[in-house]
Amino acid sequence: MRLAKFLAHAGVASRRAAEKLIAAGRVSVDGEIVTDPAREVGEGSRVALDSRALEGPEPRVLYAVNKPVGVVSTARDTHGRRTVVALVPARGLRLYPVGRLDVDSSGLILLTNDGELANRLTHPRYEVSKTYRARVRGPVGESALQVLRDGVQLEDGPAAPARVVRIGADRGPGVLLELTIHEGRKRQVRRMCEAVGHPVLALERTAFGPVRLDRLAPGAHRLLSGAEAERLRAAAGGSAVRRAPAAPRRSTSAL
């Protein structure tokens, strides 16, 4: 296994961040500082970060979390705001979010210690779908919906065509739309709706690839089943890897 991959699987950092740690001379193999992330390490190799021995790959875990509005989708926050990682008991594992949701958005976000999978799920090459429910300022005509379906022009280039459907009748404040996209640009859904003249009033992500939010309560989490994890890896163009030991499938606590 390559050294950068070893660090990622040990829960130290994502593959990209691990490469930076190695380049900075902070990683040693069998007592020797190594700066090549492609260095092969075997099962008997002694790998250390900042002179602290690493125990080797952690079991891979995947959690689904229903992020409430006001929680930031990062592992740490310099302003002291609550993070999505704090919603899940890590039990010694280094978890980090897959992609992001704006602080003023809610819904499904995935947490994992599998850096390779996280990178594949968010890389544009694999076009993993994300589905959102957006309440937008209305009324919304068919012409605006068709522009979204064709691919709306944004300031950083055209967005890929989205699947867009109107959900139910136009009741209450705004109009409820369901949008499925295969990109992950910053605040993309909000910018798409703004571009066609219908600013978002509330936004919730309801699906990430084959994983759905379903009835998971705001602030609650659940460990993905083995079958769900394998479907998610397949959606990202990967294959199944070693799974974590059995654990309760669902947490009912809303932290």
Features:
3 domains; 255 residues; Alpha-Beta Plaits; Structural Genomics Hypothetical 15.5 Kd Protein In mrcA-pckA Intergenic Region, Chain A; 6 helices; 9-stranded mixed beta sheet; 15 strands; alpha+beta
Protein described:
Helix 1 (3-9) crosses helix 2. The protein is elongated, with a radius of gyration of 20 Å. The model is unreliable at 239-255 (pLDDT under 50). With 255 residues, it is α+β, with helices and mostly antiparallel strands. The chain has helices at 3-9, 15-23, 115-122, 142-150, 188-195, 226-235, and strands at residues 27-29, 32-33, 47-49, 52-53, 62-67, 96-98, 106-112, 130-136, 153-154, 157-158, 163-166, 175-181, 200-208, 211-212, 221-223. The strands form three sheets. Strands 5, 6, 7, 8, 11, 12, 13, 14 and 15 form a nine-stranded mixed beta sheet that branches. Strands 2-1-3-4 form a four-stranded antiparallel beta sheet. It has a two-stranded antiparallel sheet with strand order 9-10.
